[in-house]
Hints:
This protein is mainly α. It is 77% helix and 0% strand. Helix 4 packs across helix 5 (133-149). The radius of gyration is 22 Å and the shape is globular.
Amino acid sequence: MKKLSDNVYSLNRLPKESKFSFISVTLVRMGGATALPQFMLGATLGHNMTFWEAMLATCLGSLILEFVCLGIGFAGMKEGLSTSLLSRWCGFGQVGSAIVGIVIAISSIGWFGVQNSILAEGILHALGDKINFIWIAAFSGILLTFLVASGFKALAWTAKIAVPLFFIVIFYIFLSLIFNDDIVIQNHSKVSPLSITQAATVVAGGFMVAALTTPDISRYCKNKSHLFWMITLCIIVGEFFINGISILIAQALNTADIVDIMTINAGIIGLVSVILSVIKVNDINLYTSSLGLANSLEILTGKKWDYFKLTIYIGLTGTALSMMGILNHFVDFLSMMGVIFPPIAGVMLVDYYILKTSRKLLDKTREQGLLPDNSSTPIIGWTAIIACILGTIVGVVLKFGIPSLNSIFVAAIAYCILMKIQDYNIKQKTT
Length: 431
């Protein structure tokens, strides 16, 4: 039976007859919005902020995500294109779209390092802290890398067990704390390592890669109503429901350590759920980053890359990051995601909805179920890339406002201005 994850239409338009039901698309999206990383994010907010500060940051970050998801998602649904293909005709060009794919793949490598660190800590906890963390991180990362690279089919069952088990454990801990009167909503004033604006960017950064790649899923939606509710429900459940619970749990237990949270009240079952969840998430991280890099490198070099070797290289890189302590910089990692990816979305939104540089071609070829010819788009969209760099720099440097919003608006405005200047210069040369 055909699944939503089938790679049949990764390099062309998705036919209308290949659309899926609202329930099917939403469940796939929901799985990504309610995974272990989302719980980690909430725990980080809960441990570093008061409850209401954390929820306000969640609300602000979620508004940014809703804006990006709906804008990019609608374009993907209408055109039947994945993010990689859509970016090719939204300012970035052939090579530019490959660069976007590489940036997304690199973020997956970072996530692999974060998740492998959690897996290593779980194993370390089970062994009673008798082995050095670095050795365990190296072993777990290398082992999982080779299992995924070799297509170890037994990994598939972890998703079927990990997701329901993880939710059961979370709700068990939550209910246990409620009945024990251990939930304390911290409203009192305290020194917070995270400001509201920083936390909002962390929230946005935690799901920004998924937001940018919304077309990969939204192209399967049948209409605008399905798209809106798919995105909105996933943000409500993931950002508010899961975040809210994890914030309360982290405050009640006074820790952001996911292994401690899951083992203090759920024991060995909680530890098993963490380990299986990490394996499931990192299986996806390795798979998607390997495919993304393979496609991008083929465009850039004109050569086919061996999937097995590429997966090994990627896995070893992610393992090295975990050994170097990337988990200790989790907030910094999410903050970086929150200023690097919004500019890409900003450029694509401006190009598709305002400048409409390729809309006529997309409209014409959409009726035929074809893609525009590669000659219709530049080899590399330097204007888009420059705008993204400017947006990222402003997001990092400017301390006023919300960094994610700053980066997306600056990139969008810069791209619009640069394109107008470029068009003016072209007209001047032709007259």
